[in-house]
Design a protein that fits this description.
Length: 72
């Protein structure tokens, strides 16, 4: 089995996806194909390049604090 992909959550910032993976638009079901990896995905909702991060979280003062449970 191949090594699992690494997905990193930056504190109060984006999600970094380091290796190629399938990204799918929730509403349309269409695949989103990045030009290169790693990609940085928006968590704050303010990016003008969604689903990709454009740094808008910095000006917004985004608080990305989360504490997922083991079953999430």
């Amino acid at each position: 089995m191949a090594d699992p992909s690494v997905i990193k959550f930056f504190e109060n910032g984006p999600i970094c996806v380091r290796e190629p993976c399938k990204l799918v638009d929730q509403k349309t079901g269409r695949e989103i194909v990045p030009k290169r990896f790693p990609v940085y995905l928006c968590r704050c909702g303010a990016s003008q390049r969604k689903p990709f991060c454009d740094g808008a979280h910095n000006a917004r003062g985004f608080d990305g604090t989360c504490h997922p449970t083991a079953d999430e």
